[in-house]
């Protein structure tokens, strides 16, 4: 089965009555003055990444994933690299922030231990905390890979793990799979709870393996992804889908607060993608240095008709997609993933939150 951007999406037919009024429940992080990181004794040297296409930098099989097809990667590195974007993704921006190179995808680990100097990226596009439409490693299996490198292969020492950051992304594939396999709105609240509960187990497990700081993303506004906004001519978001996100994010916020309390630490940190995405969408360019998009809900690369996606070719090898003239002018690259410029804009809103990595 080809892995396309559609795995991240939630159809608009569900939740027509569920969770209304929950949108925006996640409390956004307070903005703080930036403190020079060199003033702290703790400086991370490695980044470990778990999750899906929002952080995957090349773990998907080339024969299956759209992220290995042109025009993905045309901005960076100039050709498809397995990233679900025209260029860099969230992993790359976080790596730059903490001062390391973007870590090697796990599938390339056998080329030499010396290439694991900056950590490892285990994220795999299309996966979730549970089994999804993609058969490849869900988050539990990704953490198994990590544990094996630590305990059996002895690649990383306790000191390595102490001076490390983990990025964990869960962007909606569990919910897309639930819709595809159940086709009903019944049981959503218990299922959302089970997703967040399993995610909490995963976060605690990464911490128990010795990672000092763990960054987890809050769900982005799924109702604002182009797959959902297309029916509105890319002019507005689907509020019903975003209500689902509000409930997920509220539970996640409570779970992370509990984890920090139980571990008597500030090891767990939420990156609020919901607030970040929506603030970028609303930006009118009034703030100096901020990135403005004329129509942030319209993607750059789209299929020419139903059934085709960014990178699609017909039986004769003719391309069945169109691409905008300048990816820097758009927030979304395809039906669900930001462009490099979109991620850059999101990252700029998250910098003050990321400074909290350097607090005790």
Automatic annotation (TrEMBL):
GO BP, sorted A to Z: lipid catabolic process
Signal sequence interval, chain numbering: 1-24
CDD domains in the cross-refs: SGNH_plant_lipase_like
Pfam families: Lipase_GDSL
Keywords annotated in UniProt: Hydrolase, Lipid degradation, Lipid metabolism, Signal
Statement: the UniProt record of this protein carries the keyword Lyase: no
InterPro entries cross-referenced by the UniProt entry: GDSL, SGNH_hydro_sf, SGNH_plant_lipase-like
Top-level lineage group: Eukaryota
MF (Gene Ontology): hydrolase activity, acting on ester bonds
Similarity section: Belongs to the 'GDSL' lipolytic enzyme family.
Protein name listed in UniProt: GDSL esterase/lipase At5g03610 isoform X1
Species of the source: Prunus avium (Cherry)
UniProt lineage: Eukaryota, Viridiplantae, Streptophyta, Embryophyta, Tracheophyta
